[in-house]
């Protein structure tokens, strides 16, 4: 009986400890991350007049580039063709503005001449119409009066025509200038687009190709991409941190300000570093290539000094001890 009792106590002790181990393991959240740099540049596909743009050239993956080096070139054939056409059209419109201004100004000058002539005619006929009675016959007097009234009408018409020609000149020149301004804005925009199609490095570091959002294959030269797609990244060889993703179910267990982290690089499995969460995204993102669930992005800092050289892209095993597990251990 005593032997059975001892075995029963031993079994209970083993079951209890096994349960504690399982509970402890459940409190430890395991994540897989990669080494990244807080100083980095991500190249995204620019917006063009088409829904897709082709990548013509990419800097070699893994190559260390310096600030100012060319790293990405997108296809700009369509934009370049439109730009050349608009520049030619701009020259034509500018010449047309000169011609239109000359023609419309000439029309105004002619209208002003007609008005001056009409004004002289009015003055002349007024003198004749004011000849005292008795010096000319009634017939001549009536004739002069009619000529004066006709001259007044012609002067009124000349004034209206001058107003019309001046208005036509102002409207015509303004319309031509607006067309030129629109062309210049289009040209500036297209030049800006062309500038975005050739991307240079803003930081010094290795080049990494991004994954295609549909097939999870690395994007390469010749790939057609949509606007805002991530194409390439350059990460500085300093300010290292760990970038990882946590499932939405596990994210609720995390306290960014009160979680202990253990970081182990796959390249140096015998070395473990302490870390802490720098930033946790406030909004989850869908990752169709992983599952139908959503994930939160984490940036993790190294608390200990690194003993070996590391590079962006190295894989890291992240152990997150939640506050519950930390209390249980104490």
| Strand tally | 15
Number of helices: 5
Helical proportion? 40-55%
**Assigned CATH architecture of the largest domain:** Beta Barrel
Please, how many domains?
A: 2
Strand content: 25-35%
Q: In one word, what is the shape?
A: rod-shaped
Q: What is the CATH C-level name of the largest domain?
A: Mainly Beta
Low-confidence stretches: 1-26, 325-330
Q: Give helix and strand order, one letter per element, not per position.
A: HEEEEEHHEEEEEHEEEEEH
Structural class: alpha+beta
Strand order of the largest sheet: 1-10-14-12-11-15
For the record, give the distance between the C-alpha atoms at the N and C termini, rounded to a whole number: 37 Å
Largest sheet: 6 strands, antiparallel, barrel
Oligomerization state of this entry?
A: single chain
Q: What's the mean pLDDT score?
A: 86
């Amino acid at each position: 009986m005593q032997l059975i009792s001892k075995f029963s106590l031993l079994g209970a002790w083993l079951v209890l400890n096994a349960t504690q181990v399982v509970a402890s393991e459940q409190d430890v959240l395991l994540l897989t991350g990669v080494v990244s740099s807080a100083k980095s540049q991500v190249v995204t596909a620019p917006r063009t007049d088409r829904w897709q743009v082709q990548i013509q050239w990419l800097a070699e993956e893994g190559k260390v580039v310096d600030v100012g080096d060319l790293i990405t070139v997108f296809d700009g054939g369509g934009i370049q063709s439109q730009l050349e056409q608009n520049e030619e059209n701009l020259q034509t419109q500018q010449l047309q503005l000169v011609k239109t201004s000359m023609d419309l100004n000439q029309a105004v000058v002619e209208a002003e001449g007609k008005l001056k002539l009409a004004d002289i005619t009015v003055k002349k006929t007024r003198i004749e119409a004011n000849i005292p009675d008795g010096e000319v016959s009634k017939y001549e007097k009536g004739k002069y009066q009619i000529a004066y009234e006709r001259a007044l009408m012609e002067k009124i018409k000349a004034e209206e025509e001058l107003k019309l020609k001046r208005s036509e000149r102002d409207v015509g020149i303004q319309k031509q200038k607006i067309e030129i301004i629109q062309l210049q804005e289009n040209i500036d925009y297209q030049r800006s687009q062309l500038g975005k199609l050739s991307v240079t490095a803003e930081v010094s570091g290795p080049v990494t190709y991004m994954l295609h959002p549909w097939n999870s294959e690395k994007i390469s030269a010749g790939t057609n991409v949509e606007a805002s797609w991530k194409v390439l990244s350059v990460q500085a060889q300093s300010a290292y941190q760990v970038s990882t993703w946590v499932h939405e179910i596990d994210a609720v267990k995390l306290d960014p300000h009160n979680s202990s982290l253990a970081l182990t690089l796959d390249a140096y499995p015998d070395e473990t570093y302490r870390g802490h969460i720098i930033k946790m995204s406030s909004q989850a993102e869908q990752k169709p290539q992983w599952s139908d669930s959503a994930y939160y992005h984490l940036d993790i800092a190294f608390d200990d000094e690194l003993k070996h050289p590391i590079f962006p892209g190295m894989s890291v095993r992240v152990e997150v001890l939640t506050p519950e597990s930390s209390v249980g251990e104490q």
